[in-house]
Amino acid sequence: MRGSDVTTGSLFSYVDLDARVPEHHPLRKIRAIVNAALRCLDAEFDKLYAADGRPSIPPERLLRAALIQILFSIRSERQLVEQLRYNLLFRWFVGLAIDDPVWVATVFSKNRDRLLNSEIARQLLAAILAHEDVAPLLSDDHFSVDGTLVEAWASMKSFQPKSEPAGLRGPDNDGSQTPSPPPPDPTPSDTTHKIAPAPTANNTETETKMASSDRNAEVDFRGTRRSNATHASVTDPDARLYRKGKGKPAHLCYMGHALMENRNGLVVETELTRADGCAERAAALAMINRYSSGSTRRLTLGADKGYDANGFVRDLRAMCVTPHIAAKARHSAIDGRTTRHAGYAVSQRKRKKIEEPFGWGKTVGHIRKTMLRGLNRVGAQFTLTMAAYNLSCLPRLLAT
Fold it and tell me: pTM for the whole thing?
């Protein structure tokens, strides 16, 4: 008998979202670990909210929604709120019942800005790693460190000269101020511009329409010198102009750093700094200090040649950390007392796995080009993305 294609609504709804999710779905294990981690942060959430007033979005649901946005590559918070209206899997993971109303996108963004900061994201990452099922997967002795560039949400046109008082430049090394030199004469590159063709009967109407529209004007930067010392972005002042190497284009960006344990390649610490040539080594010392504060165990730290500096190696040895750093061809700070051990070669193989969380975060996550501004917000997003990467690996690791 042929079925009838007629839709009839029911008076009551008895949909159980938990029954709709398959028993062996990987999100089940992820949600159990996330819920246990959020319970550990309950006291921290109480400090962020007042005792009275209008109830906000529960912080647990907000963080689950932020994680599901990263795990499923949802482009924006507006799209996330739209999918929460009809996606039963997302509703179940976040904690919304089938009849619960979904938040307005702007309200969600305001609550996210209030809750999600670098410290909360770092505590969530630590709580996930401290879970009873996750802690045995971590190595206690062997780690790797690296950094990656996070492109800022700012145009190169926003990189403008810094405003200074008339006749004065910025403070010198001793704190004094000296008169700034007179402005240089305009060079040909500063004054040249494209000459428009003479108007004809065919293009007069087109040029009139273009002149009347509020079009973003084109800018030719050829021949101009710009640096972080004299210029800053008016859109995102924390972003810095930086290029990855010689011959590479310069971008306004941040620098994200990650500390990875070598057993299963899980990220255990993160840091986000302004893009700078010395930021990687300073961030590595800060992450090691946070993760193994007060420890007397002998650790190993694998890294690439960018970390091969005398001062950095000396600081690691003073912290009871053996520097398993790739040695430069000339003037290397790594000598035979480190490279002669078999563990050095193992660390050099393992350290390359740190590119996996960076690649995952730039293809699945949102750290290739962030849509947030400011060191604190971008740092929270970077840490949350690394936490989401760890969560994506756990179902496979726990199954084996």
Answer: 0.83
pLDDT exceeding 70 applies to what percent of the chain?
84
Same domain assignment for residues 256 and 338: yes
Residues 142 and 103 in one domain: no
Is residue 163 one of the residues assigned to a domain? no
- Indicate the burial class of 226 (C-beta count within 10 angstroms; 0-12, 13-18, 19 or more): middle
How far apart (Å, rounded) are the C-alpha atoms in residues 255 and 2? 62
- Same domain, residue pair 97 and 142: no
How far apart CA 125 and CA 138 sit, in angstroms, is 13
In the numeric block, which tokens belong to residue 327? 């040695």
pLDDT in tens, 31-46: 999 999 999 999 999 8
- 236 domain-assigned: no
Contact 277, 227 (CB under 8 A): no
Q: Where are the beta strands (DSSP E) in the chain?
A: 142-151, 159-161, 231-233, 240-242, 251-261, 267-274, 299-303, 321-325
In angstroms, the CA 252 to CA 244 distance is: 11
Q: Report the number of distinct structural domains present in the chain.
A: 2
Phi, psi of 336, rounded to the nearest 5 degrees: -65, -25
271 in a structural domain = yes
Residues shown for the chain: 400
With beta carbons less than 8 A apart as the criterion, state whether 357 and 267 touch. Answer: yes
**Helix residue ranges, H only, 72-104:** 77-86, 88-94
Nearest residue to 207 via CA among 217, 197, 193, 218 = 197
The range of the structural domain enclosing residue 52 comes to 17-115
Classify 252 as helix, strand or coil: strand
C-alpha–C-alpha distance, residues 324 and 303, integer Å: 7
Instruction: Report yes or no: 390 and 137 within 8 Å, Cβ to Cβ.
Output: no
CA 358/CA 66 separation, integer angstroms: 18
**Claim to verify: residue 142 and residue 260 sit in the same structural domain:** yes
Residues 147 and 296 in one domain: yes
- Top pLDDT among 65 and 337 is at 65
